[in-house]
Please model this.
Amino acid sequence: MSKPDFYETLGVNKNASEADLKKAYRRMAMKYHPDRNPDSAEAEHKFKEVKEAYEVLTDSQKRAAYDQFGHDGVDPSAGFGGGAGQGGAGFGDIFGDIFGDIFSGGGGSRGGGQHRGSDLQYNLELKLEEAVFGTSVDIRIPTMEKCDPCGGTGANAGSHPETCPTCHGQGQVRMQQGFFSVQQACPQCRGTGKIIKDPCNSCHGQGRIEKEKTLSVKIPQGVDTGDRIRLSGEGEAGPNGGVPGDLYVQVHIKPHELFNRDGNDLHCEVPLAFTTAALGGELKVPTLDGQVKLRVPAETQTGKLFRLSGKGVKSVRTAHVGDLYCHIVVETPVNLTKKQKELLEEFEKSMDEGGKRHSPKEHSWTDKGKSFFDGVKGWFDASDKEK
Model:
């Protein structure tokens, strides 16, 4: 069964701003939230659809991928950049950002006090070659992991957390305020639903300890600056044995000494000796997978663009491969010897004998400048006569 369109799910058009998305999400989430529709599987399913649509469309990278490739652009099975709503988050993670404590008591915890762990972000710098061809990178990250001695419960060996007598394990209490009944986190257990009388000696009742772990990250071919790679479940462990969050690896490509990247295309400047530019010839051009020969025709000028098809970057989402664009820059010779200067002076005299035929652009520009100057002079002359 195909997924519904994210824009249709939220009831907005494709040009909707972030404020429009938030307003639409607030309306739809209030309508389908499980607390308002207990025991309704259909409402729960609709809420998940609304939540996933909101997560994708409010993330600029995911929204761009979705607009271009549809659901395939944010499909977590590709292992890259997508996965909205697939990281183990409960209903409270996005919903709580907008509605605060109205439903969830301030943390997305639903009876038992198990919260999802925080997501982490790691900024990864890659060489252009690594991004183009893909690679595997080991990274070390500090994080909060489940305490092994207590298994994440926070209680010492031989003891167990006890049910909070105030909220009876719900983690929430209901407060009456005039006509309104408001749920909030239990003040005695702080929303966990449990009381730990004999805290674990390792984590001191927290259920988590600080650790540094090493992860191997597989970089797919064609990633670019701004892309994110999600490692599901590699974020921080959740408090009180809750599920861990995700780790997002944010990609940054280092500047390259030869190439500039523009999407899947590459650009480079190619210096060309003025004799080769005038007479034509052949030169070797570097590409990411070796040198290639480029035939330069006679009378080539600075700014001439040559396209080498298929010598760019393979798209991270499709089989399309970009091109390499070579921008010609004709180089004026420097550090000339006396003999070379004499030869150039002789060459210049021969050029003068040919007139406009050898340098049409120069003469055209000179003629336009003279015409402009004559026109301005004539205007001033006319003004003087009127006076």
